[in-house]
Design goal:
Rossmann fold; 434 Repressor (Amino-terminal Domain); elongated; six-stranded mixed beta sheet; 16% strand; 12 strands; six-stranded parallel beta sheet; alpha/beta; 13 helices
């Protein structure tokens, strides 16, 4: 097996001292450009790779950022992780990823494991808002998307973003609106819900109030489908004309329920989500949603780590509305259509499943 080249080998190849090679590797600007070029050429010829473990022993740090997400199977967090990795790579750092599976104890375990591995900083998209860790730790910690304890947070302005969806549905004429909220133990879910309701209340003061139904679930497909099926099984005169969801996964689940119940989207029912995951523009009909600025969020979270030791304040970045095919004007059903829906039996509905 071929022996791995060492710093000494690089020095001999370049015709410089070991100290010069070390200064080039550490990025010191005092090294003459001609010497730096010779060292880099030797590194390329030999295929030399720095010993990260040895460097960590000397500096008590690695060029690695720890990232914890609550659910790596959630497309939004997969996109967020990819963006964090890209932002870290621009600073010549790598990312060590862990999923807490929405378990605060697993989350704490991952943080301690990262500290044992001498990461240079940790980014946490929290499973809940709680943390019993002290603020003063050997490395900086930043909350991303979901607040983690009292650590600084980088997130979408969830209230502003949710208000965009509320206004969109209201302007389309919807007055019977259902909102599928996320888990109440997450700040993001609570703020989205409050922003949505507040905007509808503001609009209702001038153009007539909306009748809003709030139901809570997880941020996943199953919750959206289950809750939407419950809502859409009501008599047509009572069920909502629009469903807004706190996540695209919930909204896509609601699309499935509407399809199973043969309810046309968006002619008879508008459905909207939150996040703008990649799947949102692939489902049929394509999903109207609120886009979270994932790349900006990731970049700022990484910057926060490198802004230390000055503790940054929370930073909220506005979301944007993406209007696609799943929302449309509210249309009242005709009497004969209502009677037809009343006559439809549950077994008829079940037969429409794929």
């Amino acid at each position: 097996m071929r022996r791995m080249p060492t710093v000494k080998d690089v020095a001999e190849q370049a015709g410089v001292s070991v100290g010069t090679v070390s200064r080039v590797l550490s990025g010191e600007t005092s090294v003459k450009p001609s010497l730096r070029e010779r060292v880099n050429d030797a590194i390329a010829v030999l295929g030399y790779r720095p010993n990260v473990t040895a460097r960590a022993l000397r500096t008590s740090r690695t060029e690695v950022i720890g990232l914890i997400v609550p659910d790596i199977t959630n497309p939004f967090f997969a996109q967020l992780a990819a963006s964090v990795e890209s932002a870290a790579r621009e600073r010549s750092h790598t990312v060590m990823l862990a999923s807490s599976h929405n378990d605060p104890e697993a989350e704490r375990h991952h943080i301690l494991a990262f500290l044992d591995r001498s990461v240079c900083g940790i980014i946490v998209a929290a499973s809940s808002g709680r943390s019993d860790l002290p603020l003063e730790l050997p490395v900086p910690i930043v909350s991303l998307d979901r607040r983690f304890g009292n650590y600084a947070l980088v997130s979408t302005n969830h209230a502003q973003a949710a208000s965009l969806m509320a206004e969109h549905l209201y302007v389309l004429g919807h007055r019977r609106i259902a909102y599928i909220a996320g888990p109440p133990d997450t700040e993001a879910a609570r703020v989205r819900r409050e922003g949505f309701i507040k905007r509808l209340a503001e609009l209702g003061k001038t153009a007539g109030p909306a009748d809003v139904t709030i139901l809570e679930g997880k941020f996943d497909y199953d919750s959206g489908e289950r809750i939407a099926r419950e809502l859409l099984s009501l008599p047509p005169a009572d069920r909502p004309t629009a469903i807004a969801a706190a996540s695209d996964q919930q909204a896509i689940g609601a699309l499935r329920a509407a399809r199973d119940l043969t309810i046309d989207v968006p002619r008879k029912l508008s459905i909207a989500g939150f996040d703008d995951i990649a799947l949102a523009k692939l489902v049929v009909p394509r999903l109207t949603t609120v886009r979270q600025p994932v790349e900006k969020l990731a970049a700022r979270a990484v910057e926060f780590l490198f802004d230390q030791p000055v503790l940054p304040m929370d930073e909220m970045i506005d979301g944007s509305l993406v209007v696609r095919d799943s929302t449309g004007p509210a249309i009242s059903m005709k009497p004969d259509e209502i009677r037809k829906q009343h006559r439809k039996r549950p077994d008829d509905v079940a037969a429409n499943k794929e």
